[in-house]
Amino acid sequence: MNDVVVSMLLGAMASTGAALPFWMTTGQYGLISDYTNSIAAVSAYSQFDTTKVFQYRLGGSLAATYNTLPGNTADFRMMVDQIYGSIRFSNVPLRLDLGMKHQPVDFNANGSIINGESTLGSLSTTKGHLVWSGNARSLPGYTITLEPWAIPFTKEHLWLYGAFGDYLTIDEARFARNALVHSTKAFLMVRITKRLDFHFGLDHYAVWGGHNDTHKLVNVSWANYWRVITGQKAGAEGSMSDRKNVIGDHGGGEMIKFAWHGNGFEIIAQHEIPYSDGSGMGFQNFPDGVNTIWFGWNDKDRWVSDIVYEYAYTMYQSGPIHIESYDEEGKPTMPDRSYTTGIDDYFNNGEYKDGWTYFGRTIGYPLFFPEKLCKDGYYPGVRNNRLKAHHAAVSGKFFRRFPYKLMLTYSRDYGTYYKPYKGESQMGKPWGTVQETPLRQFSASLIGEIPIIKGLCATYGLFADKGEVFDSQVGAQLGVRYELSRTRNK
Q1: Domains, the chain, ranges and CATH?
Q2: Interacting residues of 73 by C-beta distance below 8 A, sequence separation 6+
Q3: What digits encode the pLDDT tens for the residues 213-250?
């Protein structure tokens, strides 16, 4: 039998400023814009029937928003959030997802769990995944997932897991229209003891192909696809950048994680390193990264059941001086030391000017604020990828009954090497010789649920921004959510 869950949400939101506060729109899968007044959403999904050899599940979610744009212009939008089908076989650690589906989420807050996600979202700025933070719309495509698989003859001390997928960008306000996205995730888990796990791995993406009316982009072919997934340079038909480096825009994150499973609690310490080229992959961008510590009790009815603290530092980016060992034709000048290093410019790219964004929102780390729509009609990538940030969050249940999540985020934002927010740029100068000037920003949110009757609850949220990046403002939201679950006999 398959369990089927249907969830419906109605919500209204308002702000004292021209736009909604940061945490009101961030991490919402791109469904809530800066100018949304109300939202209606419905989702339905089934679970795998674990009693069968061949297992499948289906899911989908739709959202409609009413927005008041600058100039008091009304805007109504219908969006497909998810629509997917998944299949797998019992005793086989592989799963195929086809369609539009949310990426995995970690560090869930203490709300209701719907399809593996908390209704209150994640406590982490990245949702535990630097590259796929749930900040942008879902990409259509396929994903082949390797669920945790014990390597034979290791007595279950070594485990592999990961994913391989390809997707299509469908947003119109894009420099590279209909660009393709390839994703490879590969992780190793070492079970040191029954209580202690160590994880290490790579979350890599590549944007390639696509069309632009004035700029030639690499052709989509099986030969070039092989070059993309193996990280090779382009052939003679490629651009100078693709011949010097690799085809398309490659980037991602490397993760190191320790997990301790105690009696009644769990602790996770995680370090994620962003990279945009080989120097970042080779750890030449140290000490850049997002550092997360999570503490969670098994008793989720506590006033405080989960705590997260994160510190992010992304200032260095392999250094402020860009060095390439290639001539003007893209040939190595030192064949034994071919490299590109410095000014990594996370989630941005010279060829694919959209960078790692989708529908105008950063796909990855949301504190890498995106650039606004430019006069040429596309979103030119990330505006802020050099920062120092502190983030703290707690979740639990008020009076052991009412779920809530509180998040506080403080950042010093410097823009990019190429375009600092203010003051002198460090670019091209020896590291530490420039006194750089940041914009300071503080954002806070408190959201929660009030159960009314079984399946029905009221939702609320209070939000605030104070600083120099976003307007100082407060916002509020109110809503109701109804959830229906039933079992369908097969």
Answers
A1: 85-454 (2.40.160)
A2: none
A3: 888 888 888 988 998 998 877 766 666 666 667 788 99
